[in-house]
Amino acid sequence: MESDKPLKVAVLGCGSVGSQVVRLLDEQAGDLAARVGAPVELAGVAVRRLDAPREVEVPEGLLTTDATGLVTRDDVDLVIEVIGGIEPARSLILAALEAGKSVVTANKALLAEDGATLFEAAEKHGRDLYFEAAVAGAIPIVRPLRESLAGDRVTRVLGIVNGTTNFILDKMDTSGAGFAEALEEAQELGYAEADPTADVEGFDAAAKAAILASLAFHSRVTAADVHREGISEVTAADVASAREMGSVVKLLAICELKDDAVAVRVHPAMIPATHPLASVREAYNAVFVESEAAGQLMFYGPGAGGAPTASAVLGDLVTVARNHRVGTRGAGESAYADRTVLPMGETVTRYHVAIDVDDRAGVLAAVAMAFAEHGVSIQTVRQEGRDADAQLVVVSHEATDAQLAATVEMLRGMEIVREVTSVMRVEGMAE
Amino acid sequence: MESDKPLKVAVLGCGSVGSQVVRLLDEQAGDLAARVGAPVELAGVAVRRLDAPREVEVPEGLLTTDATGLVTRDDVDLVIEVIGGIEPARSLILAALEAGKSVVTANKALLAEDGATLFEAAEKHGRDLYFEAAVAGAIPIVRPLRESLAGDRVTRVLGIVNGTTNFILDKMDTSGAGFAEALEEAQELGYAEADPTADVEGFDAAAKAAILASLAFHSRVTAADVHREGISEVTAADVASAREMGSVVKLLAICELKDDAVAVRVHPAMIPATHPLASVREAYNAVFVESEAAGQLMFYGPGAGGAPTASAVLGDLVTVARNHRVGTRGAGESAYADRTVLPMGETVTRYHVAIDVDDRAGVLAAVAMAFAEHGVSIQTVRQEGRDADAQLVVVSHEATDAQLAATVEMLRGMEIVREVTSVMRVEGMAE
After folding, report:
1. Which tens digit of pLDDT belongs to each residue from B142-157?
2. Cβ-proximal residues to B415 (8 Å cutoff; 6+ apart), any chain
3. How far does A423 lie from chain B, in Å, by closest CA?
């Protein structure tokens, strides 16, 4: 089955990632051929408009607007999908698999929404579907979870998987800026889009969390299963309060195994400054993995950008091309464990709650009672200010999110409580 | 070719890693079967003495002292080698490959000394030889370099790949202790052996550096190619001096691409406290990778220990077992680039030099002249002390190691120089 016949690659999309893929296919041609065992040639690049400006010069005659025609062409062996979004990406990937082409994609939104359809098509047609670039850009995390940790039992994944929000929170931490000001700076520097919703409200991170949880726990988890909160409500006071307790605020994608169920969520959280994730600065990403035998691992690097994402795409391409050449395929989807996803209310976590209270005798006892009444035990209480401005800052021990939410609800209704000024979860700290 | 027939695994060695492998094969049997697609069964465990105490209970009748008999048994499909050292490990791996068994090994010393023989045997007999556990324990670094970055061009690898020396240097940094005192503490806590030579003199790190360089640069690099210096000469004053310039001292395995040649070395070096490797504490390991498209990546985790190493071994086992089941094999050795290894003298680096000098006019000029005469430009000079105790601390720009060594040699011969008290390389800093 082995041959030195060139392998022909179709690229769908020629934006910031696609143009880097095209560049690297050309510049690294010699190395790619040696690593695959056969030359890898660009068969065509599907784009929406032939005359749009691009970062790379695509060789004469290779641009086409007929994406379906390209992915089903007889001489095409492999397809790279870097268009993004649900359609037409899904139809094109399915058409490619059906036509017997293996596929490499960077499409997190599609995988998180409807990965099952794609994986089933890959299985049915006996082809590879690889997607290292879909989570945390250039950082190898899909392959380590699928393969390196395949003999171990992963118990938790904590990820900083969105560069925009990490840049904003890092800026708030280092400069004391508020959310709006930090967002504006991120936009000026190109780290945030004009409409930043997908990033700051956690949609992007939730898609990645679904993919990470699926891999880590060998179960199908979709974006709809992920409890999601963004960072637009995080205030300078929250960040300052985190700092008071030796912590920083990060937007985390959290995937946990609880008994035999899975909890998956994305929300801002306070983590200790000594935690390896705390020192992830600017727009960098990192994924922290805990497993039974390996212990604690962390993977760090650029989570986005044309060239880093293209590096991940081409790493997959080499594997898929080798498989194609020798007539085999890599491991497919692993969802045998079929674990239940817990509702957020049953997820076990800890809260940091800041409460403006009347400064009079018995206030602390009354607040403590509200926690006790819901079975939540308190780890620390810090009392700040005096007289008119008294504030209590409570950090709880672990409890279900429902218990904690009910406690906060009760606090809000108490006469001595003027305002619950901040509620944030606390992660990555030893109980 | 696919079947659900159980795969039989022979384990060579039942020490701290082997006993954890045996434990996990039993405890994770259900998950392993689901991930491989067929049950994975223990066929036998080869040990030196049947009656030695062990951390795991090996099922009745599976222990044997006949390792060669075990690896060549007809019913054995896969072999795990966790004996370590050169012989009998090499002969057993070769016998296994020759008998058509794929092999997973954690043996860094053997791979670094004579990997070529093993890889050629694997190629000849069409079998897999996997070795994730040989570098940095549980941290997935072999697979990312071999596969994830296969479409990219790695330019540098900086690794903290020995936990014992990192523990000692971290202790010296945090407590101000000298080398001897920190070593003693490491020995008491079980982080250093009674005879710590292999760790503190850099032999262990050099073996890993050779493997990392081979993978990163697709060339054969052996332990003998690696310039090696240990940490036994590092003083509390060196650590304090590093701290003065905002740096820490780490034992680094450094693999670099220079034009089309490879430079590989292990030595203590000062790195900026802001570098991601600087915050790697205690006995943890981390590998920092720079590549053309992906940029900067870091992989962090436990670099040794029975369970973490066993996790890496079993991850490889799942891949090798899947391959065996469908009658294929993974990528073999990639040494096509066949790059030259530069002698240490031609390696480009930077020096931090502390010099006790006579405190008189013209001293600085004379010292500067010694650097200039060898074509080494100075980045900073710090003058400390006065009168009898004057000291100059010079940090150079990049130059070849030969130029820098010749400069230090000249300084040592100068009348105004009382003593060159410390010479250490500086890495990970922007030029």
Report:
1. 999 999 999 999 999 9
2. none
3. 30
